[in-house]
Amino acid sequence: MNKATTLTKEKSAAQTTANIGNDKLAVGAIGTASLLIGCWAVVCLVSGVISSGGPVGLVSNLITAISG
Description:
The chain is mainly α. It has helices at 13-52, 55-67. Helix 1 (13-52) packs across helix 2 (55-67). The longest helix has 40 residues, at 13-52.
């Protein structure tokens, strides 16, 4: 007869809590980085509009840059 051995995996409460804490830290770090990148993009767009002389100037300069 075959004897089957069963492996049981037990996690301690401290290990589970540490894993949850690491997950929250990673989500927070990624969220903060994406927030900073988004704010940087908005600031760049606004400064481009200001330096071009307004939204019409921005679109005009864009068309000039693309057409060559």
